[in-house]
C-alpha cells in the first residue's frame, strides 16, 4: 500500500497537482516523501496556497534539507499584509532579507515590534533602500518614517536602481537629493547609455558625491583602455560592498590582471590587495593573487606570507588547500626557512590528485604518487536516513536532475566520508556516467576521493582509436563536459569534447569525413573522433607541447599567441617554476583553471590506465620546441 502511495505521489508531483500529491505523500507515512512533496510545492510560485508561515516552519524543522536557500528566497514571495508580524520580525532578526519584499515587510512589521531605536532605524533605512513599493505604500512609508530617513538613504536607493540599470525608477527619486548627487546619477545614466558625453559628465561630479555604482560603472566602462594610476585612485575610494561583491570582484580582478599584462606588478598588487569584496570565494582569490605577486614579482616574502595565511583561512576544498600550502612552502623557501618549506611540501604532496599536490611531489623528488583510497560506506548507519531515502525515490521515479541536486547538497552537508560514499554509490546505480562523475567531483571537494566514480574510462574502443594518448582524451572530456554527451555550452559547444559547429566542420573536412552536427551530442564515438583530431591540430601547431595545446583548446590559438608575446614562450623555458608562473599569468581565470585541471587529470588517468604512478607532469610542461612530442 505504501509503495503504491509513493508511486502516486510522484505521478501527481510531475503534474504539480499538489493537493493530490500531498494526500498520497501523507498516506505513504514516509517522511522523506512528505518532505520532497512539501519542498517542491513551496518552490512552485504558481500555487496560490503557499504561505510564508508554512515555508518558514518547514525550514526551521529541516534546516539542512536540499534547496533550503532557494526556499528562504521563495518564502519572501509569499509575504503579505496578513502575514503574522511577530513571525516576520523573529525570522528576519536571524535571517537577513534576500528580496525587495523581504526588506519591505520586515521594515513594516518592525515599526511596532522593535523597541531599540538604533536597530529600528537601520531596518527602516534598509527597507527603503532595498524595498519596492506601490505609490500608496511609498507615500505612507515616507510619511511614517520621515524622521528616520535622510538624503543618504535616498541616494542609496537611487544607486540600487542603477545597479540593476533601472534608469526610469532612478529618475523618479532624483528630486529627493541635492544637485551634487543629481550630477552623479546623470553621469551614471550617461555611462549606462554609452553616451558620448559620459566622460565629461563623470569628471564634473565632485568626489564628495561619488557613490559605489558610479565608481563601478565608470571603471567597468574603461576596461577597454590601458589602466592608469587614476584607476588605482578610484579603486581606493571604493568601500567594502557585500551586496555587489561578485561584480566588484570581476572588475577588481580585471584591472589587476591588466596591470600584470603591462608588467606593472606593483600597481596590480595595489588593486588586488584592496579589501573590496567580502565573499569568501572572491577574498580567497584576491589574497592568493596578492601573495603570489608579492612573492614572485615584488620579492617581498614576508608580505606574501601574510596573504597566503589569510588565503588558508578561507580555503577548505582540496584544490584550494593544496594551492595555498604549495605557495606557503615556496614562500618559506624564499625566506630561507627550509624546515617550514619542507613541512608544507609534505602536507600538500598528500593531495596527489591535484595540480599543486603533484608539483609538491616533484619538489620532494617523489617521482610517483599514491592516490587516496575510497573510504568504506557504512550503509547500516545511513541507509534509512531521510535524505538517502529521498535520493533513492527521486531516482526510482525518474526525477534524475532533482536526485542529482539533492545528492550534491547532501554531500555539502555531510559530516562523514562514509555517508558521502553511500550517496555517490546510490547515484552511480542509475548508470548515468555524467551524474556519477559530477557527484564524485563534489565528493572530492569534500576530501572524499572515489577514483572509479571520479575518473571513469568509458568508450574504450573509441578512445583507443584516436591520435591522442587515452589518458589525455579522458582528461579533456572530464573537464569539458563531465562525460555528459548531451552537453551544450552557452557558446553552443557540443558533446563530450565540446566542439563548436565551426570546429566540427573544419575538422571533419581535414580528416575526410562528413560533418553531422546532430551526431555531436548523439554519438559519443563521433564526437571523440572529431574532438581528438581537433586537439591534434593544436598539438601539431605547438610542436607537441601539451600546455599550449590544452590552453588553446579552451581559449583559442589567437589568445595563445598574445600570451606568448606578453609572457614569453614556455617552450623556451628550462625551469619548471617559470612554467608554473606562466600558467598563473594567463589572464583568463577559466583558462588557468582549465589548464591545471586537465594536466592534473592527465596524471591520474595515466595511473589508472597504465597502472603506473609515475608523475610525468614535469615532462609534460617542459616539452620544448626542439624536444617535440611525436603525434
At a glance:
The protein has 631 residues and is an all-alpha fold.
Q: Extract low-pLDDT stretches.
A: none
**What separation lies between the terminal Cα atoms?**
63 Å
Summed over residues and divided by their number, the pLDDT gives a mean of: 95
**Total number of strands:** 0
Report the C-alpha radius of gyration, rounded.
28 Å
Number of helices: 38
Strand content: under 5%
Oligomer: single chain
Can you give the helix content as a percent range?
A: 55-70%
User: What is the approximate shape?
Assistant: globular
Counting helices, strands and paired strands, the structural category is mainly alpha
Reported for the largest beta sheet, the result is:
none
Family: Belongs to the virb1 family.
GO cellular component, one term: periplasmic space
Pfam families: SLT (PF01464)
Keywords: Signal
Describe this structure in words.
- The chain is mainly alpha-helical.
- Among the domains are: 2-177; 379-448; 460-621, Orthogonal Bundle (Lysozyme).
- The chain is 66% helix and 0% strand.
- It has 38 helices and no strands.
- The protein has helices at 2-15, 18-28, 31-42, 52-61, 68-77, 85-94, 100-113, 117-130, 135-144, 151-163, 167-172, 179-192, 198-203, 212-221, 229-235, 245-261, 265-272, 280-296, 301-313, 318-334, 338-349, 355-363, 379-382, 386-396, 400-413, 417-428, 433-445, 451-454, 460-464, 470-480, 501-511, 519-522, 524-541, 546-555, 557-567, 576-585, 589-609, 617-621.
- The termini are far apart.
Amino acid at each position: 500500500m505504501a509503495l503504491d502511495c509513493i508511486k502516486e505521489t510522484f505521478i501527481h508531483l510531475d503534474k504539480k497537482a499538489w493537493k493530490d500529491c500531498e494526500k498520497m505523500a501523507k498516506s505513504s507515512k514516509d517522511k522523506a516523501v512528505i518532505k520532497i512533496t512539501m519542498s517542491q510545492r513551496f518552490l512552485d510560485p504558481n500555487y496560490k496556497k503557499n504561505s510564508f508561515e508554512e515555508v518558514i516552519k518547514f525550514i526551521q524543522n529541516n534546516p539542512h534539507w536540499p534547496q533550503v536557500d532557494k526556499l528562504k528566497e521563495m518564502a519572501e514571495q509569499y509575504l503579505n499584509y496578513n502575514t503574522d508580524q511577530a513571525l516576520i520580525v523573529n525570522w528576519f532578526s536571524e535571517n537577513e532579507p534576500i528580496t525587495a519584499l523581504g526588506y519591505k515587510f520586515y521594515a513594516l512589521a518592525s515599526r511596532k515590534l522593535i523597541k531599540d531605536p538604533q536597530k529600528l532605524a537601520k531596518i527602516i533605512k534598509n527597507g527603503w533602500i532595498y524595498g519596492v513599493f506601490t505609490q500608496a505604500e511609498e507615500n505612507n512609508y515616507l510619511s511614517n518614517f520621515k524622521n528616520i530617513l535622510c538624503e543618504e538613504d535616498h541616494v542609496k536607493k537611487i544607486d540600487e536602481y542603477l545597479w540593476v540599470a533601472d534608469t526610469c525608477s532612478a529618475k523618479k527619486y532624483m528630486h529627493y537629493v541635492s544637485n551634487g548627487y543629481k550630477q552623479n546619477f546623470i553621469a551614471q545614466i550617461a555611462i549606462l547609455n554609452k553616451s558620448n558625453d559620459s566622460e565629461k559628465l563623470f569628471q564634473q561630479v565632485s568626489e564628495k558625491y561619488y557613490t559605489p555604482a558610479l565608481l563601478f560603472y565608470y571603471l567597468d566602462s574603461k576596461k577597454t583602455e590601458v589602466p592608469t594610476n587614476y584607476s588605482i585612485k578610484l579603486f581606493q575610494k571604493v568601500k567594502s560592498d557585500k551586496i555587489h561583491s561578485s561584480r566588484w570582484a570581476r572588475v577588481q580582478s580585471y584591472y589587476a590582471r591588466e596591470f600584470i599584462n603591462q608588467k606593472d606588478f606593483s600597481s596590480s598588487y595595489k588593486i588586488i590587495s584592496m579589501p573590496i569584496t567580502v565573499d569568501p570565494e572572491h577574498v580567497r582569490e584576491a589574497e592568493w593573487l596578492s601573495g603570489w605577486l608579492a612573492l614572485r614579482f615584488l620579492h617581498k616574502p614576508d608580505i606574501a606570507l601574510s596573504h597566503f595565511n589569510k588565503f588558508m583561512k578561507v580555503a577548505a576544498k582540496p584544490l584550494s588547500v593544496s594551492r595555498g600550502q604549495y605557495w606557503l612552502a615556496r614562500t618559506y623557501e624564499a625566506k630561507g626557512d627550509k624546515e617550514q618549506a619542507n613541512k608544507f611540501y609534505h602536507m600538500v604532496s598528500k593531495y596527489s590528485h591535484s595540480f599543486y599536490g603533484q608539483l609538491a611531489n616533484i619538489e620532494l623528488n617523489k617521482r610517483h604518487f599514491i592516490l587516496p583510497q575510497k573510504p568504506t560506506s557504512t550503509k547500516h548507519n545511513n541507509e534509512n536516513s531521510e535524505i538517502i531515502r529521498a535520493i533513492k525515490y527521486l531516482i526510482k521515479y525518474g526525477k534524475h536532475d532533482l536526485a542529482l541536486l539533492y545528492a550534491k547538497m547532501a554531500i555539502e552537508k555531510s559530516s562523514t566520508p562514509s555517508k558521502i560514499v553511500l550517496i555517490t554509490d546510490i547515484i552511480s546505480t542509475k548508470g548515468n556516467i555524467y551524474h556519477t562523475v559530477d557527484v564524485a567531483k563534489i565528493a572530492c571537494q569534500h576530501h572524499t576521493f572515489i577514483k572509479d566514480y571520479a575518473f571513469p574510462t568509458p568508450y574504450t574502443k573509441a578512445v583507443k582509436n584516436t591520435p591522442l594518448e587515452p589518458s589525455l582524451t579522458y582528461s579533456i572530456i572530464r573537464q569539458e563536459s563531465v562525460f555528459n554527451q548531451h552537453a551544450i555550452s552557452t557558446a553552443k559547444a557540443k558533446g563530450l569534447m565540446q566542439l563548436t559547429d565551426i570546429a566540427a566542420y573544419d575538422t571533419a573536412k581535414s580528416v575526410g569525413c562528413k560533418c553531422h552536427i546532430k551526431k555531436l551530442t548523439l554519438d559519443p564515438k563521433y564526437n571523440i573522433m572529431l574532438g581528438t583530431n581537433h586537439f591534434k591540430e593544436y598539438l601539431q601547431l605547438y610542436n607537441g607541447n601539451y600546455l599550449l595545446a590544452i590552453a588553446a583548446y579552451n581559449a583559442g590559438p589567437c589568445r595563445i599567441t598574445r600570451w606568448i608575446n606578453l609572457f614569453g614562450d614556455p617552450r623556451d623555458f628550462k625551469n619548471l617554476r617559470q612554467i608554473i608562473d606562466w600558467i598563473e599569468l594567463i589572464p583568463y581565470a577559466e583558462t588557468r583553471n582549465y589548464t591545471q585541471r586537465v594536466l592534473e587529470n592527465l596524471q591520474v588517468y595515466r595511473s589508472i590506465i597504465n597502472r603506473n604512478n609515475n608523475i610525468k607532469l614535469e615532462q609534460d610542461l617542459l616539452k620544448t620546441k626542439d624536444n617535440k612530442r611525436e603525434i
